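cron nightly-structures :: item 1 of 1
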Amino acid sequence: MKKLNQETTSGRVCKTTALLSALTSALLLTACGGGGGSDNAATAVSYTPGAVFKVGTTTFDPDLPAEPQLPTDAQVCATLEASNNLVRRPDGSLPPEADPSKTGVGVAVDPAVANPDQARIQSALDACGAAVDKEVGAAIAAADAAAVAQQTAAAVPNKNIAGISGEELAKPQYRGSKFAVRLVVNSKGPGNGFISGPLTLPSGVTLWIDKGATLYATRDVKAYAPNVAGPYCGNTAVSSSKAGSSSNCLALINGNNLINSAVVGDGSIDSRAYAEIVTTDKLYPIMKVDMSCSNTYANYAKGTQAADGTACDNGGTTVNSKTTARNMTWWDLAYLGNMVQNGTTGTGSQSNFRMMVFNYAKNLTLYRITLNNSANFHVVPSGIDGFTVWGVKVQTPSLAAFANPAGNGNPLYTGDTYTKDNVKNTDAFDPGAATSPTIVALTTGKSTTSSAKHAFDGYLKNFVFVYNYVSTGDDDVAIKGSSNPSPAGSNLAAVDGSRDVRSDRKSGAVIAHNHIYWGHGISIGSETNAGVKNVEVYDNSFQHSEEGLRIKSDYARGGEVSNINYKNICIKDADNALLFTTYYSTKGLPATGPKVPNFHDIRLENVRILGDSAIKLQGFQANTGGFNLPAFPLVMSMNNVVADTPSAMRMTMSDAQLSIKGVNLPIVASTDNRVTVNGVATWAVDGDLVLDCSKAFVDFPAIGQSNIFGSGWDK
């Protein structure tokens, strides 16, 4: 097997270490060393010069499939040019005159201005989808039908009908000769922006946003909630007692039942969650920053205007036609619903649209695209066989979020400007399994489907998340174990990296070679009830993140998480470098009773922590919450897990069985907290001899001047 291409570093002189007086009896000062540790903490650790891995320098990984490629010009179905009316500013925003707000009660905006490009982009996608289906649809259908027949006859216990594999469908005979819709800058003027409402991505089609072009989400709330009878989008409640939900809104890009689809390019997508919500229907209820509303859903459904003083049913107070307050933004709603109303009443939650939602696909790719400022989660893929995210940049909030004619930082309704702490529920990537297997027609256009039905087993398989740059206000990537398509009683995990692994890769669940900035790091959970196992996480860096490595759950959503391997990780200035907890929230228990989290066979190797940080290692205590429940301790091995300043680590440990080697963290056994430790921590581990982080932390790659972290490179 070829070695990873990487730089190495030679040995360094041992660093001077100091002992905390409180840990003198527990931590032994041993010979300087690193790279493997020793079962006997008083024995010098062996080290081979030149063997230290340098995080952030790998350019080729033989354990991964081949890098995706952009389409060629010959593979383009249609090329659409941006209108010269839409010119992106250097900070990434559109100027206010591009699609001006009209915020008075009973005032509607012009659809031609608020959403000028949705129809033409969707028309091009539909035409391309129809052409692909005509060219290769029969071949795909025949291959799938043959596979389904064979699998049905075999009747393998606990095995879903999956149809033809994604690995087989990646072959050229199942791809159209022309399959891409390309959005480009105007060839005769300055135009470089598109404004669109929700788009349907057809099977076999690639949406290609070229360098310099930006697809902006329309601010028209009606686009995401087109049905007068509901569900309703753009609120924190949908009745006096029921909270809002993002499932009430169409996503900006929707994709269901797909084969060989993609979103690619060196351009960007900006959901503009920082901008005022507007409406093309003057009766649609809009919430104002003074907490009044423009109408009620009850009156809107009847085509009437509610009288002033009528109680709002969208999370606001009362209808007020005289207010001069501006409309809420999507992030106003997120903060209000999740942090204020939910925190006080437990019933608030934003109904904000997501950037991309995909359900059931084989071979879905996101490549080199930049994603900014989602109103809710950026990418939510469920039940995908072959989900590849490669070279993608997510930055939320970006500099565009601070653009404001008054120059006051475009604040939240509270007056605070956007930070990593108040741009809520903007998870970057939340991959997981679907609820069940299905046999369904493929989506060939917004309102068309294939003539034949195709099988999907519902699992997340062959997930590759590599070479990405992610900064957001919530989880950077979180594998969700909330849904499970496995047969009842099978005891199979919803997400299993060893399931149907393709021949072109070593593992079926890989998160590697990424740079993480703001956000909650690389997570599993908090929904783990359906099970997650066999995930490989390696060669990743975290800089100024809220969390680094995290597995989170609670006994409302708990389940088994096992065989999770972390290796060659650099973490700098994180609030919580390591956070493994079975007490993530206090959500109400399901009617069926507690779901107990069980985290075991969690392995950390070559992890280096720089700066002041916290570490939380918490398994599940027996008889928690008054229930007669068994204990499920956190079972974890730590090999060469070191901090540059061990005295700055704030440790919380309970109900854990830890095996440690070459670890300088203040880890000690505790009878009171039910912590057992195999091995002894030593301050004599030299971080430079464990892992080289000198190239791990880099500027976020800027798009023009849009880098909130300062200078970067234009790419």
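cron nightly-structures :: done
The two ends are 33 Å apart (CA to CA).
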